Amino acid sequence: MSRERRKILPEIKDRKYIDNLTSLYNRKFFDDQLKKALIQAMTDDIPFTLLLIDIDDFTHFNEMNGYDLGDKILQQIGFLMKRNLRSGDYAIRYEGEEFLIVLVGANKDDSFRVAERLRKMIEMYQFPGEQIQPEGRLTISLGLASFPEDGESMAFILKRADTALFQAKQRMKNRVEIFTL
């Protein structure tokens, strides 16, 4: 494994860092462990990309189908994300219906391909209750920002991924938006 593709953290199985619903890492893991490792990756000049992901119109889905089915959808999406990552990448349930994927050693072009593959996979997957969604299917929007291109601090890169996600939501949803200055 090349320097860029190595794991920046050993696997952490401490239950306090695992989201009970999705079995993905949780926000506490990101705040306590991964953020520090990414800052070290910056020092070591290891590129990485943050994909910030939001389920489109998920409030509508929950209102129409109920929160129990909404929880099942979150579980399914978490499973699909985890199953489709490379070793050394991280999937996190960031908050509510937002997820964060960290692609270690990935440039923007590679990361866009991963994001687009994930977006299409979710769009094509048959979720129960999705027919009531505005487009008749459950979809996600993704915002993408990378180190070193998009900033020299975690705060900048995370903010820029959030800006790209906001643009994706404003521009029709069900899309990947890459942060650009």
List keywords for this structure.
181 residues, alpha/beta, 5 helices, 6 strands, 42% helix, globular
Summarize the structure.
The protein is α/β, with parallel strands linked by helices. The protein is 42% helix and 19% strand.
CATH homology-level superfamily: Reverse transcriptase/Diguanylate cyclase domain
Structural class computed from helices and strand pairing: alpha/beta
Distance N terminus to C terminus?
A: 32 Å
Per DSSP E runs of 2 or more residues, the count of β-strands stands at 6
How many domain modules? 1
What order do the SSEs take from the amino end to the carboxyl end, as H and E? EHEHHEEHEHE
Predict the CATH topology.
Alpha-Beta Plaits
Radius of gyration: 16 Å
CATH class: Alpha Beta
Shape: globular
- Main sheet summary: 6 strands, mixed
What's the architecture, going by CATH?
2-Layer Sandwich
